[in-house]
Amino acid sequence: MAVISGLSGAGKTATSKLFEDLGYLVVDNLPAELLPEMAELVASDPERFARVALVLDVRSGDAAVAFGAVMGALEGRSIVPQVLFLDARDEVLIRRYSETRHRHPLEGHGSIAASIAAERAMLQEVHDQADVVIDTSDLSGRQLRERIFATLQPDEEGDRIAIQLISFGYKYGLPLEADLVFDVRFMVNPYYEPELRAQSGLAEPVRTFVLGQPAAQRFLAFTHDFLAFAIPAYESEGKNRLTIAIGCTGGYHRSITIAEAMAEDLRAAGYGPVSVWHRELDKA
C-alpha cells in the first residue's frame, strides 16, 4: 500500500495516474473521518488490497492529524505503507497555477504565494515522515515516471537502507528531497577545458580530469569515512532511504563524476541498493 501526499501543483494528479497504470486502486480526497474505515477495509483483505494508493493532502482537513490517524490505523493492523511526498519550488508552483488557472485549495489565505506557504507549513510533518520525497520542479513526465518506478522497485537487499545519489547544478536550485548535500565546486571545472566542455561527467576524459585532482581524491576519502559512520547510524534510527545530493555549478561535469565515484564506493563497501540520478544531464 502507498500513501501519496504533497503540495498542490507538485504533481499528485500525475502521480496518481501513474499508480493507476501500475494497477493500483487510487483513493483520492477521502474525508478524514473515513480514513480509519479505509484502513480496516485494507486490513480485512490484505491480498486483495495490496495495491491501494491513498492520496492525502490539505483537502482532508488537518493533514497532520489525518496522516497520523491513517498511519496509526494501518500500522496497528500490521500494514506499513510507503509514503511518497511530492514537492516543488515555490516559483515553479506559482508558475503552474498561473498557466493552468486552477484554484489553490487554500485560496482564502490571500495570494498564491501565501497559500503555498500556508500549505507547506500544514504539510511539514507529513513531509518529514515521508519515505520518499520527490522534487518535481524540473521533471518531465517521463522522468517522473522513472522516479516513481524506481521508488516502487522491490528492495532486494532486505532491510538495508536504500541510498540515492543525485547530481545537480546549483544554478538550477537545490534538490528538495536531499537529506545530505555536498558541494564540489572547489574542484577544478572541466567546463573551461575546450575539449571537455561538451562531454558530461560520465565520459572517461572528464572522469580522468576530475578524479585526477588531489582535492577530488581527498574529498572521496572524507565522504567514505563520513558515510561509513553516518549510514549505520541512520539505519539504527529506522531510516530506510537516504538521499545524497552532490552539486557543482551546472550539474554536468564534476557533480556527475563524483556521484558515480561515490556510488561505486558505496556498492563496493556493501551498502545497497544504491541508485544514481543525474538531474541536469538532459539539459545539455
Secondary structure elements and their pairing?
Elements: E1 2-6, H1 12-21, E2 25-28, H2 35-44, E3 52-55, H3 63-75, E4 82-87, H4 90-100, H5 112-129, E5 132-135, H6 141-152, E6 162-169, E7 180-183, H7 204-211, H8 214-236, E8 241-248, H9 254-268, E9 274-278
Parallel strand pairs: 1-3, 1-4, 2-3, 4-5, 6-8, 6-9, 7-8
Helix pairs in contact: 1-6, 2-3, 4-5, 8-9
Characterise the protein shown here.
- The protein is an alpha/beta fold and 284 residues long.
- The chain folds into two domains: 2-152, 3-Layer(aba) Sandwich (Rossmann fold); 162-283, no CATH class.
- Helices cover 42% and strands 17% of the residues.
- It has nine helices and nine strands.
- It has helices at residues 12-21, 35-44, 63-75, 90-100, 112-129, 141-152, 204-211, 214-236, 254-268; strands at residues 2-6, 25-28, 52-55, 82-87, 132-135, 162-169, 180-183, 241-248, 274-278.
- The strands form two sheets. The protein has a five-stranded parallel β-sheet with strand order 2-3-1-4-5, with helices on both faces. Strands 7-8-6-9 form a four-stranded parallel β-sheet, with helices on one face.
Shape: globular
Reading the helices and strands in chain order gives EHEHEHEHHEHEEHHEHE
Question: How far is the first residue's CA from the last residue's CA?
Answer: 37 Å
Oligomer: single chain
Mean pLDDT over the residues: 88
